Amino acid sequence: QVQLVESGGGLVQPGGSLRLSCAASRNIFSFTAMGWYRQAPGKERELVASITSGGTTNYADSVKGRFTISRDKPKNTVYLQMNSLKSEDTAVYYCKPYPPEPNWGQAYWGQGTQVTVSS
């Protein structure tokens, strides 16, 4: 089973930027769509951005124009560039295949990477 490790989260002021990385243990991006998801305290997990194996991207309305998903196939890494961050972007961010499977438990989702937007 491929391992996906998220990194790059942290504390940033409103209006700031962060770049999240998702490193895969082997190449899956050539044939698997990937998504960045997030879950804020007390809220349901939501899809933030996705990228297909062909490179087509899609974004949640709340992040359009501010976030960019991309990938580096030779490095087996997917990125999420987040600009103009807002307090409502505060959440744990996860990188997983897209679409999500309904039987994925918390163990599969793992710890993600925490993004906190605060002054």
- SSE string: EEEEEEEEEHE
What's the helical proportion of residues?
A: under 10%
Q: What is the 3D form? A: globular
Question: Radius of gyration from the CA trace?
Answer: 13 Å
Amount of beta strand: 35-45%
Question: Low-confidence runs (pLDDT<50, min 5 residues)?
Answer: none
Strand order of the largest sheet: 2-10-9-4-5-6
Number of helices: 1
Straight-line N-to-C gap: 40 Å
Per DSSP E runs of 2 or more residues, the count of β-strands stands at 10
What is the chains' assembly state?
Answer: single chain
Structural class by SSE content: mainly beta
What's the pLDDT, averaged over the residues? Answer: 95
Care to describe what's here?
By secondary structure, this protein is mainly beta. It is built from one helix and ten strands. The chain has a six-stranded mixed sheet with strand order 2-10-9-4-5-6, with no helix packed on it. The model has no long low-confidence stretch (mean pLDDT 95).
